Amino acid sequence: MAAADRANLERFQRQIAFAPLGLEGQKRLAEARVLIVGVGGLGSWSAELLARAGVGMIRLVDDDRVDLANLHRQGLYDESDAAAARPKVQAAAARIGRISSRCRVEPIVARADHGSITALADGVDLILDGTDNFATRFVLNDYCVRADLPWIFAGVVAAEGQVLAIPPGGRPCLRCIYDQPPPPCADPSCRAAGVLGPAVAALAALQAAEAIKVLSGHGDQISPYLTKLDLWTNTLQRVDAARAAAAADCPCCKHGVYEFLEGP
Ligand SMILES: [Zn+2]
Asked: Is residue 4 part of a domain?
């Protein structure tokens, strides 16, 4: 057995023992490259989960700095990061480096938009949504559908959130569910509603699990539903994304119109 396989067996033995993954799935994770757009609540938890799972490369993109008000829900940061107002991607890269030396982290201080997304996504196998606004998500959706790249949407506000894995091939996509970005008052960045830390962690876990399926060669196992989870009422709802797509006449994944890549 090769030395790399022995090292995988030792570190990831409890994950490799999970039958659908196995050693082959673990090897695929080690070769996988992921872009996480936004390293706030969702992005910091999912980055940690994917690094611990053995994903080989994680590119982190965010232009924000750590603030004390982030710490209740953003798992990679601590008070020293907030006191120094460190750029989130740098604080996250340092923390992930301590968690796993096997994960190559590329921290990029930038904002993902229609002009930057092509360069930011260069060479990755999957994009994970850690943003807090639908304007950026629609750019990600257009880019990924056009590039035939899988991506995992998630959003959280108050105690509830939703997640949808958009498969390679891009159908159904986010615009099958939301034709246009929801109005600002419904946008999850709406601060007045607040946000519960465990809700962020739960949605990031769902997101990371979908990513692990795709990256380990089990993309056919991703959920065909938009999953809505409320941690305050302990309720889960599922929306059949294929049925929504059939009814949507989606400009993006059905007609190939990528208007959000053209800028505002
Ligand atoms: Zn669509």
From this structure: no
